[in-house]
């Protein structure tokens, strides 16, 4: 793996056209002597009156590559901006990123002694009053540069949409749509920047962007920046940019040769093909092998972050509040972990995901950024923290699961190895099904090398184990039962399972999982969150964009459950048809698992008692039913079965109806009637079912059109013959009335559905788009 040092470019003073003294002072005060390649490539082009599309690796200094031109362009203006006029707008997909850009911008302005007033425009206010206060404050400030998220910026620049419907393309369709007054005037806007442009589209901000484009002058400069570009960007480029210059920064390898890779040359990425029930041991061993460092661990879902945060905090930084049973229990738990994980420095555990309130997100961000020296820090997060965040000095990024959006992979890894620092990344791959992901990333210019499987030897030291993971033969034969049982391997097995186990026995990993289960058995919060995390992970697996690699059917679901330290597998449709024998249920009545929080536990016990009483009462009333271990899961299953049955019924009914309709249409060959029936398919059904009123209607229609004698004739003929045929068949079989009722009922239901949909649409439409920056 390459460990090249990135080549910084020339000194700032070498730029042509030259930067102003104030900006040169600022970059020098920041301690940046030379430009990074992306800065050297972008600044002169952007300042030379060209729109730019910039693609450069993570951590390559893109932020300054647009902040400096923005300030320079405003400095070069001939006329001054008025109090309510803005000269530049920078759009970012997330609040964190917007805040980060704003901080850098503020710092550069301060260090350069310029008098520009930047303003941060993001959602996340806790109330409408706060929002109103923020607006007033912004108007008082009279900002020159706005940095923010798309929805809020749209409200600020275009005015808040009070009435009207916004389509995906950003046009307002409903007549009588009304926007409030814009809070600023963008009439003299000089420059627009879209940071993480592909993400802006992925998050569905197209409409807001289009609205912003239509409210700002066409004669402006626009820059589009990202480490990854998606195909959808073409449309955005056409809509918002004019003949843009493309700046693409290639990475120089150690020997100076130019190689095509999407990641910095200082970043080394390892993949580890590892059974999912051994990931926890691998992560802890990896940490143990290094000094106090900063780690980011990515998970697919918020629920997984919440669960592992609680679990790791309890294991790695246990305290009297976290461990029930007082000091003695705390000591015992520490003793139990010691042979499995032992480091001499303190470790703090943090979590960050999109469902956390903004304040907490910010606090986590700051705490992890300002970690005391000598302390290791682990930040557990979802992809909300994958893009753009410049967390200082992250040593290693671990991906517990590959991201559902392949583009996120490079962004996740890019939180380390920033601005010339070296960094490591590790991604876990499930054996037997996900190996193709390695080639998939190679093709996307993200090279990876195999990482080592770590084992603990008898003296407790961590050693690299020999694992044969290259053989395709073994790969294809590996299934859920193949990898762990060494003893099992000596027993005769069916043909497919006769391969040698790929992974060595790892009793310490099993001990670790036993410890996790014991913890869950004594802490309801962890027990419940574990189940939630597992279910949400399995569901998120179905959402992988690369579904041909991440095939739900091949997901080693039982091993994953074991790896999560579950006490039992929750009942879920994805487990149907799987062999669950390998999973050993933890012997405990789960009702007895307490919350550590006394008040919460008290409430739970009261609720439980009430539920039991109600259950007893029901039992006395009804004949006894089959005993359920988990009432909630069975109820869910029953609901699912009922839903399936209903769907089947509807499908059958629909098929029957279409067949009937087709048959009728085939029988009737009058063109005018066919036209009428095409316009009103129910007419055919009514006719078929001898609804007198409808027949009369049809006859009337035919008679009232004397110009169409043929139609009248054929209609009457058809109706009469149909009546005769029906009369005959009704005398022997009178089952069609229910069918008719169905049709009428379906028509009625359709009407109601349409009405409801219209109502819902109305409701959605009043929702404030400015607050919709939902990440995750
Ligand atoms: N010329 C420079 N010399 C040294 N360090 C720099 C220079 N320019 C920027 N940096 C530093 O590099 C780090 C990464 O910069 P920045 O956040 O702009 O990267 P980025 O390309 O936007 O990354 P991402 O794609 O992940 O958002 C920051 O900590 C920044 O302070």
Radius of gyration: 33 Å
Q: Determine the mean pLDDT.
A: 81
Bound molecules: adenosine-5'-triphosphate
Q: Enumerate how many helices there are, as a single number.
A: 27
CATH architecture of the domain at 12-259: 3-Layer(aba) Sandwich
**Strands across the major sheet, in which order?**
3-4-2-7-8-1-9
- Please describe the biggest sheet, giving its number of strands, its sense, and whether it closes into a barrel: 7 strands, parallel
Low-confidence stretches: 1-6, 471-501, 690-694, 707-712, 730-744, 763-776
Brief summary of the model shown:
The chain is an alpha/beta fold and 776 residues long. The protein is 46% helix and 11% strand.
Could you characterize what this model shows?
By secondary structure, the chain is an alpha/beta fold. The protein is built from 27 helices and 20 strands. A 7-stranded parallel β-sheet has the order 3-4-2-7-8-1-9. Helix 1 (21-29) packs across helix 4 (95-111), helix 2 (37-47) runs parallel beside helix 3 and helix 6 runs parallel beside helix 8. 38% of the residues are buried. Adenosine-5'-triphosphate (ATP) is lined by residues 32, 35-36, 39, 56, 58-64, 227, 388, 390, 414, 418-419. It catalyses: ATP + H2O = ADP + phosphate + H(+). A motif (Q motif) lies at residues 12-40.
């Amino acid at each position: 793996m390459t460990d090249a040092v990135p080549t910084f470019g020339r000194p700032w003073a070498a730029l042509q056209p030259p930067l102003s003294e104030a900006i040169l002072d600022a970059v020098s005060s920041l301690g940046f002597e030379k430009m990074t390649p992306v800065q050297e490539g972008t600044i002169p082009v952007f300042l030379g009156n060209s729109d730019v599309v910039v693609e450069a690796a993570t951590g390559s200094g893109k932020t300054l590559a647009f902040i400096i031109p923005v300030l320079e362009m405003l400095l070069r203006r001939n006329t001054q901006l008025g109090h309510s006029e803005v000269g530049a707008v920078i759009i970012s997909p997330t609040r964190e990123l917007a805040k980060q850009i704003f901080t850098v911008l503020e710092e550069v302005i301060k260090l350069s002694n310029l008098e520009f007033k930047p303003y941060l425009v993001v959602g996340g206010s806790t109330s409408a009053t706060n929002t109103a206060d923020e607006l007033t404050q912004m108007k008082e400030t009279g900002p020159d540069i706005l940095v923010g998220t798309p929805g809020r910026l749209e409200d600020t620049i275009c005015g808040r949409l009070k009435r009207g419907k916004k389509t995906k393309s950003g046009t307002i369709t409903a007549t009588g749509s009304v926007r409030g007054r814009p809070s600023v005037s963008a009439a003299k806007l000089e420059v627009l920047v879209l940071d993480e442009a592909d993400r802006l589209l992925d998050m569905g901000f197209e409409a807001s962007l289009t609205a912003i484009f239509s409210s700002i002058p066409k004669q402006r400069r626009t820059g589009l920046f990202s480490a990854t570009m998606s195909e959808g960007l073409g449309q955005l480029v056409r809509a918002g940019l004019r003949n843009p210059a493309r700046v693409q920064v290639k990475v120089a390898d150690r020997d100076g040769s130019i190689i095509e890779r999407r990641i910095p040359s200082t970043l080394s990425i390892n993949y580890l093909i590892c059974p999912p029930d051994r990931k926890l041991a691998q992560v802890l061993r990896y940490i143990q092998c290094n000094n106090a460092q900063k780690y980011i661990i990515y998970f697919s879902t918020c629920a997984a972050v919440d669960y592992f945060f609680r679990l790791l905090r309890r294991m790695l930084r246990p305290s009297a509040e976290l461990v029930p049973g007082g000091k003695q229990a705390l000591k015992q738990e520490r003793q139990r972990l010691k042979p499995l994980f032992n480091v001499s420095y303190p470790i703090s555990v943090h979590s960050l995901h999109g469902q956390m309130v903004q304040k907490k997100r910010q606090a986590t961000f700051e705490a992890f950024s300002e970690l005391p020296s000598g302390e290791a820090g682990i930040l557990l997060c979802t992809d909300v923290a994958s893009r753009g965040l410049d967390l200082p000095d992250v040593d290693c990024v671990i991906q517990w699961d590959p991201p559902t959006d392949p583009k996120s992979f490079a962004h996740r890894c890019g939180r380390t190895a920033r601005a010339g620092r070296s960094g490591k990344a590790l991604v876990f791959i499930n054996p037997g099904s996900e190996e193709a992901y390695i080639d998939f990333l190679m093709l996307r210019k993200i090279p990876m090398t195999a990482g080592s499987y770590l084992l603990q030897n008898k003296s407790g030291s961590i050693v690299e184990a020999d694992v044969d993971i290259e053989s395709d033969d073994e790969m294809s034969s590996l299934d859920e039962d193949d990898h762990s049982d060494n003893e099992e391997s000596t027993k005769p097995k069916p043909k497919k399972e006769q391969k040698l186990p790929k992974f060595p026995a790892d009793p310490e990993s099993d001990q670790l999982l036993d410890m996790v289960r014991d913890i869950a058995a004594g802490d309801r919060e962890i027990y419940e969150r574990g189940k939630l995390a597992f279910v949400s992970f399995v569901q998120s697996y179905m959402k992988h964009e690369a579904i041909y690699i991440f095939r739900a059917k091949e997901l080693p679901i039982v091993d994953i459950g074991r790896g999560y330290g579950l006490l039992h597998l929750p009942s879920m449709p994805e487990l149907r048809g799987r062999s669950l024998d390998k999973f050993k249920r933890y012997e405990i009545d789960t009702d007895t698992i307490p919350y550590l929080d006394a008040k919460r536990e008290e409430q739970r016990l009261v609720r439980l008692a009430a539920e039991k009483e109600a259950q007893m009462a029901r039992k006395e009333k009804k004949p006894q039913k089959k005993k359920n271990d988990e009432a909630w899961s069975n109820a869910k299953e029953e609901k699912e079965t009922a839903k399936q049955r209903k769907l089947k019924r509807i499908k059958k009914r629909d098929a029957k109806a279409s067949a009937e309709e087709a048959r009728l249409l085939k029988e009737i060959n009058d063109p005018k009637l066919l036209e009428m029936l095409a316009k009103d398919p129910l007419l055919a059904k009514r006719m078929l079912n001898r609804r007198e009123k409808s027949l009369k209607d049809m006859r009337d229609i035919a008679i009232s059109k004397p110009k169409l004698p043929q139609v009248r004739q054929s209609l009457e003929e058809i109706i009469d013959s149909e009546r005769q045929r029906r009369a005959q068949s009704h005398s022997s079989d009178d089952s069609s009335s229910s069918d008719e009722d169905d049709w009428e009922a379906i028509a009625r239901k359709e009407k109601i559905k349409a009405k409801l949909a219209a109502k819902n649409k109305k409701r959605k439409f009043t929702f404030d788009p400015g607050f919709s920056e939902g990440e995750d």
